[in-house]
Structures are given as C-alpha cells and as structure tokens.
Q: What sequence folds into this?
C-alpha cells in the first residue's frame, strides 16, 4: 500500500514539474513578413508545442488564416533552458529542425532546413 501511494505521489510530482516548465505561457514573436503573433506554449504529450493564438500586422490585430496552427512542434526540454524539436514558418510553409534557448523573458528560437536555409526569431514573454 505504501509503495502504491509513493508511486502515485511521484507520478503527480513529475506531472507538476511539466506543468511548471518555464517555457509555458504566451510569447510575442518578432515581425516576419510584416506580421507578428502571440504564441501560447502548452504541453503536448511529454514535450511542448506553441500555437498561434493572436496575429497582428501594421494595422493592428487581424484574423490570420494561421490562427490555431502549431508554430513550435514537439519541443523537447534538453535542460538548462534549451529545447529541441521543429518549427513551422508561416511565410514560406516550411518546417525547420528547430531549437530554442530560454533566458529570462526572452526565448531565442532558430531552425534550419537541410542544414543550409536557416531562420531565427526571438520571442518575448507576454504572460
């Protein structure tokens, strides 16, 4: 009985750790092709995904066809604020092998296709 209780508490502790990951929350991207987005990071399985929840251009908030789409895909926490996975760039529709580094309220993201064509974007924490 004690073993089952200990195992249950351990499992809850692990889940709580995932829920408290510092990447969770809403982040603002840099401007790319005249627009930027608010991206919400949440758990997706054992990893983290970032979905577009709001979009903006020079005239203000607008309803982009990219709303609700996943921008950061299966980002695995590698430790020390580093994550690896994939990133989708709406401007060209390409998926890049990506990485992110969290430093305070800045999330530096980058990725490459075929190791040649690379992109970078720094996100700023909103909440």
A:
């Amino acid at each position: 009985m004690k073993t089952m209780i200990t195992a249950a508490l351990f499992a809850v502790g692990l889940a709580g750790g995932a829920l408290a990951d510092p990447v969770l929350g809403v982040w603002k991207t840099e401007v790319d092709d005249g627009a930027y987005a608010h991206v919400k990071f949440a758990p997706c399985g054992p990893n983290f995904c970032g979905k577009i929840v709001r979009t903006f251009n020079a005239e203000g908030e607008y309803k982009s066809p990219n709303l609700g789409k996943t921008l950061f895909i299966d980002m695995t926490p590698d430790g020390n604020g580093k994550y690896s996975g994939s990133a989708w760039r709406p401007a060209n529709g390409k998926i890049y092998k990506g990485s992110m580094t969290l430093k305070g309220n800045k999330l530096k993201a980058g990725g490459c296709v075929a190791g040649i064509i690379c992109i970078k974007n720094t996100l700023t924490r909103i909440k």
Observations:
- DSSP finds one helix and nine strands in the chain.
- The chain has one domain: 23-125.
- The first strand starts at residue 25 and ends at 28.
- Confidence is low (pLDDT under 50) at residues 1-19.
